[in-house]
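Throughout our pipeline, every protein is held as a single compact record rather than as scattered files. The record that follows is passed on verbatim for readers who wish to inspect the format:
___
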Amino acid sequence: LAPLGGFLGSHDVGIASNGWAGLCADLDPGGYALECPLPPYPHSGSRGQELIQQTLWVAPGWTTLVFLPCLPGRRLPSLELASVHMAEIDAGFEPYEAEARQVNLAAELALNGMRTSQRLVPDDLLNLLLHAKFKNPMLGILGAHVLLQGPKTKWQLFDQVVENLKKMLGEAPDCTALEVLGQGRRRSETVSFSAVSWPPMLAAGYRALIAHDSDSPGLIEDGSVADHAAAVLHTSWPWSRWTRLEPEVLQELDDSGGFEMAVGEEPWNPPWGEALRTRTSTTRGAGVLGGVRSMDERAGESPTNEAARELLRQWLMERETEGKLIFPRKGEGPAVAQVTEYLQRMAEQSTYGDGRADLSRLTLSQLSRRVGLPVSTVRRAVSALVISGLSQK
């Protein structure tokens, strides 16, 4: 994941008097990330220059179109209101035809339904989405997600839609995500899927892949963008977006199974050596562990906390003995923080004798499911804890 620089065969198109501008680019098929400042934008001075990235997929034979409105009072386009469409190469895109307006309305309703976890698309507009997929596969992807929102899913129709999408888009991440969602919803016999290295465009699909990876480790390719972005995923939007990943985070695995270090980069020492000594904030794992809230205290001052620390040491040492560790590197901080907080709470609950929290029986797959991260991400986070010295007495 690195800046494209100049676009091959790109050219700007714009009509200033109508208030719009465009960019066309010839790109190889595959995954790309659209990068933009997170609102409020940098010129407001309120949040610095925090950047987010949104996943895009370019399928062979298709053009991917992204529409970004620019709201009054903003100097930059509003990524949170983006819409994505597809059209056959050289076929053009006509958003102003009478039927197209109805289809666009259905697409916006589908996206709003994903924002609110409600089905907002009536049957007549859903039919428009599904029939329009042959000209615009993105509409078929949205329509398939809408089918899953109903109380009684029409599985034969759903399977037919997904099969047609696969014929048009191949092994696009969103197609795999729909297959995973369908299997999970029906609780059917587990089927193996090809590993996914790039996040689906729709966040519901991405979350489904992450959840399924805990049962089928390897569904999300280790060390891929889909793997790393999960720890910094923004969950409030229908599109898959995450806090910007630094290019050096995504170096490919070397032959020994560790990450290649970027030129001039120092080996990374995870800054979590004191992670179990002081806590003052809540954690996403609290709900799973009975709603326990954080305490502002030091482990060494409490026998219970010292016992919890020892439990966690033992659990980490067992993972080390099992050989389930891989070398972590720069960029793992968010995942390590989430895993650390959850493990600490579970260790504390175990010392209280809470039957729901038995740390000694916790597997990496279970930990993955509970913190909502891929198994490979969790394995690297646990490795970082061991390497940082938490497993040493």
In short: The longest strand covers residues 30-37. The two ends are 39 Å apart (CA to CA).
